[in-house]
Design goal:
Layout (H helix, E strand, L loop, with lengths): L1 E7 L2 H9 L4 E9 L8 H5 L6 E8 L6 H11 L7 E2 L2 E2 L5 E5 L2 H16 L10 E4 L4 E2 L7 H4 L19
Parallel strand pairs: 6-7
Antiparallel strand pairs: 1-3, 1-6, 2-3, 2-8, 4-5
Helix pairs in contact: 1-3, 3-4
């Protein structure tokens, strides 16, 4: 098994889409990238901890590649908006790929460069590529949020696979 961690706005939608992806064993909402002493939802929402709402994914690389996970990540959020996804505004909603190895960093940077070269998005990509740090699991009421709240609107729309076909 391998680990990948992504942040792209509210963690509920990111977790939901990855949790339902073949080859993914678990997707857990949490916080990463900031103050190692302050990581509760209330603190992160203030926007001054440096953390992003993130999802830690455990996956089987024999069933899905890291690059394929990245492509799903780019299909489900807008990587061109700085510190924002839809109505969610603040650095805690920024787009970040937290890499766990040099290989993951290299794959992420190459894919971003290809997306820029092909002008897949109409604006420059602002997604950070940062070394993974301590991951703080979010409170239980945030885990599997859409399973627990089936009448809530999912905050991330997954674009069709054809959106990034050929990458």
């Amino acid at each position: 098994m391998e680990v990948a961690t992504f942040a792209g706005g509210c963690f509920w939608g990111i977790e939901h889409h990855f949790k339902n992806t073949e080859g993914v064993r678990s997707a857990v909402s949490g916080y990463m990238g900031g103050d190692p002493k302050r990581a509760s939802y209330e603190e992160v929402c203030k926007g001054d901890t440096g953390h992003a709402e993130a999802v830690r994914i455990v996956f089987d690389p024999n069933e899905i590649t890291y690059k394929d996970l990245l492509k799903i990540f780019f299909r489900m959020h807008d990587p061109t908006t700085l510190n924002r996804q839809g109505p969610d505004i603040g650095s805690q909603y920024r787009s970040v790929i937290f890499y766990h190895s040099f290989e993951q960093k290299e794959i992420a940077e190459k894919l971003i460069q290809k997306l820029l070269t092909l002008k897949v998005f109409h604006s420059p990509i602002v997604t950070e590529v940062s070394h993974a740090s301590v991951f703080f699991e979010a409170e239980q009421y945030h885990q599997k949020f859409f399973e627990k709240n089936p009448n809530r609107h999912i905050c991330h729309v997954l674009r069709p696979e054809s959106f990034l076909q050929g990458l």
